[in-house]
């Protein structure tokens, strides 16, 4: 497993039956459509999702659309 994985890497290594919890840190590094597919897969496989909500600005890109 790589040191840091992406949403795409996780989807490529599905099904997510081997994953108990997904901890998201910097979602602004992810393609939104891929992130949505990953979250849907987590829901489908019963994988809990937690996130770190401390960023007030995106690490990359602009603040427009940053949630």
Characterise this structure.
With 67 residues, this protein is of the alpha+beta class. Helices cover 30% and strands 12% of the residues. The chain is built from two helices and two strands. A two-stranded parallel sheet has the order 1-2. The longest helix is centred in the middle third of the chain and has 14 residues, at 32-45.
Q: Shape, please?
A: elongated
> Biggest sheet, in brief?
2 strands, parallel
By DSSP (H or I, 4+ residues per run), the number of helices equals 2
Looking at how many chains there are and whether they match, the oligomeric state comes to single chain
If you compute it from the alpha carbons, what radius of gyration comes out, rounded to the nearest whole angstrom?
12 Å
Q: Estimate the helix proportion, in percent.
A: 25-40%
């Amino acid at each position: 497993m790589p040191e840091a994985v992406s949403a795409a890497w996780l989807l490529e290594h599905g099904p997510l039956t081997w994953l108990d919890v997904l901890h998201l840190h910097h979602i602004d590094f992810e393609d939104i459509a891929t992130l949505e597919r990953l979250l849907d897969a987590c829901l489908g496989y019963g994988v809990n999702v937690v996130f770190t909500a401390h960023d007030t600005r995106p690490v990359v890109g602009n603040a427009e659309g940053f949630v």
